[in-house]
Amino acid sequence: MEPNAVPSSLSEQEQVRHDKRARLLADGVAPYPITVPRTHSAAQVHAGWGHLEAGEETTDVVSVSGRVVFVRNTGKLCFATVQDGFTQADSGVRLQVMLSLAEVGEASLEAWKSDVDLGDFVSVTGRVISSRRGELSVLATSWVLASKALRPLPTLHKELGEETRVRQRYADLVARPEARDMVRARAAVTRSIRETLHGDGYLEIETPVLQLVHGGAAARPFRTHLNAFDIDMTMRIALELFLKRAMVGGADRVYEIGRIFRNEGIDSSHSAEFTMLEAYQAWGDQFSIAEMTRRLVQNAADAALGTRVIDTPAGQIDLDGEWEWKPVYPTLSATVGEEITPDTDASVLRRLAEAHGVEHDPAWPAQKLVMELFGELVEPGLLQPTFVCDYPPIAQPLARQHRSEPNLIEAWDLIIGGVERGTGFSELIDPVIQRERLVAQSLKAAAGDLEAMQLDEDFLAALEFGAPPMGGMGLGMDRLMMLLTGHGIRETILFPLLKPQG
User: Fold this and answer.
1) Who has the most CB within 10 Å: 262, 368, 430, 490?
2) Cβ neighbours of residue 429 under 8 Å, at least 6 residues apart?
3) Secondary element (H or E) of residue 388
4) Which of these, 401, 472, 396, lies nearest to 430 by C-alpha position?
């Protein structure tokens, strides 16, 4: 395509805008200048002159800029609303600009009427006034086009469909303050988490995304090939194993907020690419790391919402209330009305699954059946923050054996609003037992289990150098945002992975 060639399939509006661009260039007007006058943001104008009474004028001259989101051209006086970019402090402030024949002259006014469309960026210089209707405004003495939009804006007063919102997030951000607020809320949550961890003495580190051996979770990885070394690699499914290597090396408290990639199902609560926080604390255990997780979530709610009470369709969640601990086997027993223990036979559990309509594989062992029964029958009803604990070993191959119950592990899942938000445990640091568990995982992988972990000899070698007792946790950042905002995962991720159209 030639540098200034126009795509062949344009809508009528797009063709008009392309024609305007071509005409501007022919007239020697830059439709995309490098710089334009700007002395104040819209928010600064509101802060400095918001006190003006209706009809009051000043001699204060400012230059403002932004995207045109409303325009009304009426003879000798034109009105427009420009929308500023959104920031930490605001969601994109709007400001009225007025262009009159008396102030800008006939040529400039006609150019405005003919050249400027909804969606264009403009810079307007003029006096700050309050209109007769009390609208804070800039009465232009001059203006300049800052960027010509070649596609029309979505209709701002109509609701965008979810599919349009996630596929054209740039349009969504322009049209909906709620979309801009989601970006700002997520930034506030991420900043809050970093500040909390920094205050607790944690070091933020980065670990590899491309890995020779995937591990740290039971998940199917994405596979790729490194041409430089001619070797197959995977994209990480967890942050855990490299963070633990740093702990072996002497780091006392570490964390990472990073992208995770799992080649699995995509639905309202799962994405193939998502963001995870993982943190590890030397000389800690599942209880100390749980207390830290509680503070992380509470502080994040303070930052994003200004409250720790969240209203949901299922009821009100109080993050300041009791964070209860519920052991898996006694809680499941109470739910099904029959005692379930680590010694309960798989045949009993299969019977219970059938009786309660829980889908299962008849080949599953007892521990896997317990996990499925709990996940289907108990978890959805846990509205208030709950640490589900005392899991069977199959749940977390990297967790330490329970200090008093040899058939259990010291691990918890944090359930809030009926959804798992994070997990944590007393970390397994015995390299002999860890080898046994990873060997068992690798045998599952060899037998065709796509989610089983591989045998990571380098990680085991690191553990053999010796690691301090520690607690570790993982918190799904997207799941946390879903809790705080009440939206699905595709709304909380700014640019979610989507199936191509067509």
Assistant:
1) 262
2) 400, 463, 467, 468, 469, 470
3) strand 386-391
4) 401
Q: What is the pTM of this model?
A: 0.92
CB atoms within 10 A of CB 136: 19
CA distances to 169, 261, 275, 392, 488 from 166, rounded to whole Å, are 5, 19, 17, 39, 11
User: Distance between CA 399 and CA 425 in Å, rounded?
Assistant: 6
- Domains observed in the chain: 12-153 (2.40.50.140), 175-323+384-492 (3.30.930.10)
Element (H, E) at 83: strand 77-83
Q: What is the pLDDT along the chain (502 residues), one digit of tens a residue?
A: 455 666 668 999 999 999 999 999 999 999 999 999 999 999 999 999 999 999 999 999 999 999 999 999 988 999 999 999 999 999 999 999 999 999 999 999 999 999 999 999 999 999 999 999 999 999 999 999 999 999 998 876 677 787 888 889 999 999 999 999 999 999 999 999 999 999 999 999 999 999 999 888 888 999 999 999 999 999 999 999 999 999 999 999 999 999 999 998 888 788 999 999 999 999 999 999 999 999 999 999 999 999 999 999 999 999 999 999 999 999 999 999 999 999 999 999 999 999 999 999 999 999 999 999 999 999 999 999 999 999 999 999 899 999 999 999 999 999 999 999 999 999 999 999 999 988 888 888 777 777 777 788 999 999 999 999 999 999 999 999 999 999 999 999 999 888 888 6
**Residue whose tokens read 């009470």:** 309
Helix (H, G, I), strand (E, B) or coil at 187: helix
